[in-house]
Amino acid sequence: MEFRHLRYFLALAEELHFGRAAHRLSISQPPLSLNIQQLEASVGALLFTRNSRGVQLTAAGKAFVPRARALVEQATEAARHARAVGQGLEGRLHVGFVGAMLYRGLPPMLRDFQQAHPLLRVVLRELNSEDQLLGLSHDQLDLGFVHTARRPTGTEHLLFASEAFVCCLPAGHPLARRRRIEVAALRDEAFVLFARAASPDYHERILNICADAEFQPDVRHEVRHWLSVVSLVAQGLGVALVPAALRSSQLGGAVFVPLAGVDVLSQSYLIWKSGNNSPALQAFLQLARVAAPSKTP
To answer: With 70 as the cut, is the pLDDT of residue 84 above it?
Structure first.
């Protein structure tokens, strides 16, 4: 049984006239008759009766009509879906992100993308940088927003955001009302730090900022998410150096003060596998290149 057999069968079942059905299909009558015979042989039952009064569906033919129509509709929908996916208009895009991206322009960019591509489903997964790199390597993610400039072999990246670090303090801390803070003023403070296992780049960057101020921070707590860092600080469990974007988290009890004399930047990169030419990914990258702020103060 071939797909054309189903189309020819349905045309004849609706017209009940070989001449009209052949005209509708833009073929002559002999090929139509031959295809109906081939279909009946494949099904193993007579689908039409032909006599002087015309063409009629048999009981088997009547039973076959809804199933044949469903098969044709499914094939048509499968072809439409394949075309849409091939054109980047439909399908799924798996996107990894670090929590700070919620304050670095990711939500409005996703809204714009979904409005432009309503049939494309973006599936978000909050993961630390290391887990995103692993997800990309195992094809579990199409792209990711990470806090590392390290680019594994076979990947490409785009600098999406670059901003200063600020000091995060409990609201009642003596330094909380200063306009700027020297890092050296934090020498005797307990620190809340992003875990090395979650983002070795960020962990090392913050340690280096303290090393430049000639002290090693007293790290009391290590966590895997930036909002956890801010939350612990807000509850008076230490101080932290965090990306400036976290000021938008608006967690009560936390105060953010600019740092004096620190040139080290917090950077976020969009990373994806080289050679991934899927239209959905390319559409996302096109929007990301436009949406990427050059620098967040």
So the answer is: no
